[in-house]
Amino acid sequence: MTERTLRGKVAIAGIGETTYYKHGQSPDAEFKLALQAILAACKDAGIDPRDVDGFASYGDDRSDGPRLAAALGIKELRFSNMHWGGGGGGVAASVANAAAAVHSGMANCVIAFRSLAQGQFARYGRSRTGAAAMGDDAFLAPYGLMSPAQRFAMKITRFMTDNGIRHEALRAIAMASYHHAQNNPNAVMRGRPLTAEKYEASRWIIEPFHRLFDCCQENDGAGAVLVVPADHAKDLPHKPVYLLGAAQGGHHRSAAPVHNAPDYASAHFKTVAKNMWDMARLGPKDCDVVQAYENFTGGVLLSLVEHGFVDPKTANEQLVLENLLVSGGKMPMNTSGGNLAECYMHGLEMVNEAVRQLRGTAINQVAGANVVAVLGGPMVTPVSSLVVGTEAAL
Amino acid sequence: MSTTMNRVLPEGLPVPAQDGLAKPYWEGTRQGRLVIQKCRGCGKYQWGPEWICHRCHSFDLGWEEVAPKGRIWSWQRPHHPVHGALNGHTPYTIVLVELPHADSVRMVGNLLCGPTDKVVIGAKVEAVFEPHDEADPPYTLVQWRVQEG
């Protein structure tokens, strides 16, 4: 039996993104943003958009594949895929699903994307009024537990308390993203650097570990990548960026209702990370750069721990700002500004940044980067992550 | 255990739907009893309510009263008002309470405490039933307070 793997079988041939806007600031409709990002990814790859034959997304993206296919005059739609789960838990899964479709022969040229103009829809962190709380929410909302931050906060409280990890470790994660964003012309937080003093002076969202700057913003924009078979990628303009490993899912009953996951104080990556590294035949020490999705900085901590990048015993020493920067850091992280400071594009912007790092075209370039990990949205379920590399990493 | 108290949070928050799968739980709280799912197949508790036992796949799930006591497994103290009704009423404290005598299921509620009181993981707590008699239909929330002694 041949090995069942995606390692080296497919490549990201093109990346695209729109201008990134603050919440509610996009002059364009969400669907138009999706179209712009997809066209940009096709142009980057040197591929006629009409030759795209599949779409994969996540987080209940409102720009559905069949409508995109019709709007773009796609010749033939062969793959149309939505990954279950909210937020950015599915960012790597959308790329992996596109990759699986391409590798299996179900499709040839698939766009994985996210389009998001939250300003045109509901507001995060503010619940709708009126209706009765149904299902799980009946046991949560009447107690004032409604927002994403609140859904995850008690995981972080428990993990950090158990392991004696200080809030300063989370501050370093936030400051690294803001630091890298200052050089990035498309970062929404460019020109708004974050100092330790500004962080410490920011208001509490939730005690004991969520100040304002520990929480993601809301943004408008879209991002897309084009996934093709590895053989095809070699004929296209850019140096191919190969998928080395990808996994999605969650550990035993990670979606158990009313905060009853047996292994609760977790980002839900424990099995997913192992599966990803096994497929890639790599580990955290092989990575030159990490892109770690920030919904909340505490989630980044959990995610880094579960992927093996950080040992909880030494997290306070490891998670210091200078260690996370492109200039001199041992673990350069969120090199374009991440969700916190480039744009909260549910992590798709991190996949684009991973590709730029491997092409050698990033604004904050890590010299000679050959392997980059993208850790998707933590603490939701299912979660997903991936690792990509240059030809040298194959 | 007490059945009278001031409410932890102001009026106007979403009210629980009390129908369907969770009906016996809400009926229990109205009587000041903590009633959760217990599988008649394997005898284990589970929470929140589900149509099937996740251990033995029996659909024969009963409901049983459990002692309204537990210990704090984790906590949070929100300051940002996530709902209009909470404006001017933050911070408040949410606890995740483990019930060790009921297969360690966990329940979410508010902790009766001051806005700056220290919350200790592992502290023993007991339920306080908070009736909302004027609601239509009436309902009762289960809150928690640190057990004396």
TrEMBL record, chain A:
SUPFAM superfamilies: Thiolase-like. It comes from the Bacteria. Signal peptide: none annotated. InterPro entries: Thiolase, Thiolase-like, Thiolase_C_2. Gene3D superfamilies: 3.40.47.10. Residues 256-376 form the Thiolase C-terminal domain. Pfam families: Thiolase_C_1. This is Thiolase C-terminal domain-containing protein. It comes from Siccirubricoccus soli.
